[in-house]
Amino acid sequence: MLDFAIFAVTFVVILVGAVLYLYPSSRRTSGIPGLNPTDEKDGNLPDLVNRGSLHDFLVSLHQDFGPVASFWFGGRPVVSLGSVQQLQQHINPNHSTDSFETMLKSLLGYQSGMNGGPTENLIRKKVYQGAINNTLKSNFPLMLKLVEELVEKWRSFPDAQHIPLCSHLLCLAMKTVTQLALGESFTDDTEVISFRKNHDVIWSEIGKGYMDGSLEKSSSRKGRYEKALSEMESMLLSVVKERKAQRKQSVFVDALLQSSLSERQVMEDCMVFLLAGCAITANLCIWALHFLSTSEDIQDKLYQELEEVLGSDPVSMDKIPQLKYCQHVLNETVRTAKLTPIAARLQEVEGKVDQHVIPKETLVIYALGVVLQDSDTWSIPYRFDPDRFAEESVRKSLCLLGFSGNQTCPELRFAYTLATVLLSTLVRQLKLQQLKGQVVEVRSELVSTPKDETWVTVSGRS
Asked: What angle, 0 to 180 degrees and rounded to 10, lies between the N-to-C axes of helices 140-155 and 118-138?
């Protein structure tokens, strides 16, 4: 509970702090229905603490005030959107920045590429997306090899052995993301261990918040965070210079270096991809295997599609679009797990949602965790049911939220590719079983993750 409370406070503190830094004059009241300030100085921060997490606070907020609601950070209003219909009015598919990327860069304190004009930001966005697409195409065999090594390891286990999904799949995600982002030097376990140490410190601080509620109030935590961030940035700048001198063109950083971005900008984009890519990829895979372990019928249906489309061949990039049911399984995993429950964006110009005016430079939160469990949009929302995505209207709803289609965040597209390779390799060889009596609870941070280690057993397919 304390972790959730601290995250709620820290998340809003840093995001709104970034807004105040960028736009110190933006303090107008929106007039949108919502909570009155509980505290004259802190606004509704006491309510965030009492609810335990920002996601839980937003659930309560939208239950009480409807799909467009506001709350207060100090003397500043924040607007939250909590339904597909209202998000549809606000989301602009031509935005030059991704809402999750913008949020993560704000938390890291990165401003380059966020303050530029629309043309500059759009160019940088296209460079970033193109780099990920090219990396996936060029390095698909390596991704397949890493997955096959993991599945072979699981096949060697006795049927009753408990397999820790979080540990194994975070390791898979880190190996894949680092090697595809930075190159062959990260085949060395020493480099990966060093990366993971710093990654975990950075992601913990920006994801969970600070144990005392404020970075500035804990010199030891601030010191560890700044040391980890500095070491990671130094490592990335070193890789950038090395790859630039070698003029290689095979991995993510190489593609960025082909553009007009500065070395600092390349380093920042690598940092965002590494942090978000590891967290999103690992947790998409964890939740997918967890949910599959709860239903033999869904596993069998997925197995049938894999056999029909792939036969005995390994999955390939050109076959992935044909795996429709596999896509449904991953879509439903994202929805049921509320994989990225929060996104945020600055209101660039004065806008309107329903009859409500949103002033320019207001912080607008997309309460995606609320939307993904909304019974008006999803029938029986708490049930894991991939078949719901057979309906085009349901697929369009998820696409609008940025989880599929053209608006998918690049890190999630990467995660979908690795998860598809994992499912297509594993499900054709093994059956997943959940542990009896295991209760898996969700920790809703920047990316939703299980509170504790999640276990399964496997057995060979006959």
From this structure: 50
